[in-house]
């Protein structure tokens, strides 16, 4: 059996990159990053951080590996689907085979206002690999309240966006997006699809910013919100240095409603019905015909003046009401139901 190589050998090519060097590599090895969400973006981010030698990486995800993930989530294999492995555990197994010198900690959990502090405390950096607005606003609240920076990223269709948020130095997420969009008004990967190439690009930009931060090259952070579209071949960075708002509800007024749980969707299992109800934190008024049109790409849809029903794979059904409330039928697992709601509604 070959002994573990020295850092100077394993990381030789990036050490030769002068802005990083031996000093930067040493700092990476002493750093602790948390990746929240081990789907498509999280897979790209985690792989780069582990291969680059970040000393400790925690991987958090609530879901299991499914067939539809394999098109774009590069850490997973068909055997992971057959074995019904949680994404965090499957990712950790793969990444440990890539770099045994990194401490990799898988956590199978749903990040909520109740556990976010326990899951993220002590990190040098938080990486956003999530797929819904509720968690992003929660991460922003936690970041600002704790002073731990986070790197936002999102992608759907052929376009994506990313921004690095450093509390006290840059605008926070709510400086640019003060309030979440209404439930059901934005595209998701389920309704609009997604190309794997945009995932690679956004995740790699996020990972590069992480390497800059953790290696001490903080002056090299791009200082923009970057928007990409790989189909139209457009790259649109917008400087945000002057976008901090004194009246920002989060970093300006220091109010953290997502952290205290008042903005969190409520889930409840319905006794004897193999169903879970999801109620959004804010009331909405949906146009069910418009939602039904978007859902037609996913599965059979029926709609009446009161509700919409979408038939999903795996024996699941999704019943959506005008006020944004939904019943996920075919499961009694609130975490599974929340994942379905997030995939379809963006929350």
From TrEMBL:
Any single Gene Ontology cellular-component annotation: cytosol
Alphabetical list of PANTHER family matching this protein: ADENYLYLTRANSFERASE AND SULFURTRANSFERASE MOCS3, UBIQUITIN-ACTIVATING ENZYME E1
SUPFAM superfamilies in the cross-refs: Activating enzymes of the ubiquitin-like proteins
Name assigned to this protein: Thiamine biosynthesis protein ThiF
Domain THIF-type NAD/FAD binding fold: 11-250
GO molecular function terms noted in the UniProt entry: nucleotidyltransferase activity; sulfotransferase activity; thiosulfate-cyanide sulfurtransferase activity; ubiquitin-like modifier activating enzyme activity
Family, similarity comment: Belongs to the HesA/MoeB/ThiF family.
InterPro entries assigned to the protein according to its UniProt record, in alphabetical order: ThiF/MoeB/HesA, ThiF_NAD_FAD-bd, Ubiquitin-activating_enz
Species whose genome carries this gene: Paenibacillus beijingensis
């Amino acid at each position: 059996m070959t002994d573990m190589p020295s850092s100077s050998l394993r990381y030789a090519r990036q050490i030769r990159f002068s802005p990083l060097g031996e000093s930067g590599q040493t700092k990476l090895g002493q750093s602790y990053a948390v990746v929240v969400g081990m789907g498509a973006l999280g897979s790209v981010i985690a792989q780069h951080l582990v291969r680059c030698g970040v000393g400790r990486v925690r991987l958090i995800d609530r879901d299991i590996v499914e067939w539809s993930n394999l098109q774009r989530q590069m850490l997973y294999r068909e055997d992971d689907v057959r074995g019904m492995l949680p994404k965090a555990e499957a990712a950790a197994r793969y990444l440990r085979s890539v770099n045994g010198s990194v401490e990799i900690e898988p956590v199978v959990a749903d990040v909520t206002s109740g556990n976010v502090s326990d899951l993220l405390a002590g990190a040098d950096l938080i990486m956003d690999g999530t797929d819904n607005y509720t968690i992003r606003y929660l991460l922003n609240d936690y970041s600002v309240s704790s002073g731990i920076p986070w790197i936002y990223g999102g992608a759907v269709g052929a376009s994506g966006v990313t921004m690095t948020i450093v509390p006290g130095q840059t605008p926070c997420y709510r400086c640019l997006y003060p309030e979440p969009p209404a439930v059901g008004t934005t595209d998701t990967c389920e309704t609009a699809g997604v190309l794997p190439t945009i995932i690679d690009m956004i995740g790699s930009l996020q990972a590069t910013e992480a390497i800059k931060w953790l290696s001490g090259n903080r002056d090299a952070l791009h200082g923009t919100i970057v928007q990409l579209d790989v189909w139209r071949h457009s790259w649109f960075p917008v400087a945000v240095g002057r976008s901090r708002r004194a009246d920002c509800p989060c970093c300006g007024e220091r109010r953290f409603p997502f952290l205290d749980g008042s903005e969190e969707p409520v889930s409840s299992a319905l006794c004897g019905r193999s169903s879970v109800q999801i109620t959004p934190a804010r009331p909405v008024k949906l146009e069910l015909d418009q939602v039904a049109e978007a859902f037609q790409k996913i599965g059979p849809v029926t709609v009446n003046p009161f509700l919409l029903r979408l038939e999903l794979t795996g024996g699941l059904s999704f019943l959506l009401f005008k006020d944004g409330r939904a019943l996920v039928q075919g499961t009694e697992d609130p975490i599974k139901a929340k994942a379905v709601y997030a995939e379809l509604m963006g929350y």
